[in-house]
Automatic annotation (TrEMBL):
Origin organism lineage: Bacteria, Bacillati, Bacillota, Bacilli, Lactobacillales
Transmembrane segments: none
This protein's name: Iron-only hydrogenase system regulator
SUPFAM superfamilies from the UniProt entry: ACT-like
Organism: Loigolactobacillus rennini DSM 20253
NCBIfam families cross-referenced by the UniProt entry: hyd_TM1266
Pfam families the record matches: TM1266-like
Amino acid sequence: MVSVQTRIAVIGIIVEQTDEVSELNRLLHTYRDYIIGRMGIPYRQRNINIISVAVDAPQDVISALTGKIGRLAGISTKTAYSKVVSD
């Protein structure tokens, strides 16, 4: 059996335009096995939504997900990684 190292990360997402929200939700659903939890906050005064997604996944999976999210129009993302690496 091969052990794959995973990383704990928090993906911060800011939705400024809602045109691609259904695609964002589809991506998050596709990667659901890696998602520990997510929290969405509507910031009505600024007409944006702030989403944080905690993941435990291999580095390449996190990079693939954040890369796909980053290509969505009107949506920005940044990722913070834990120093903890698990087997």
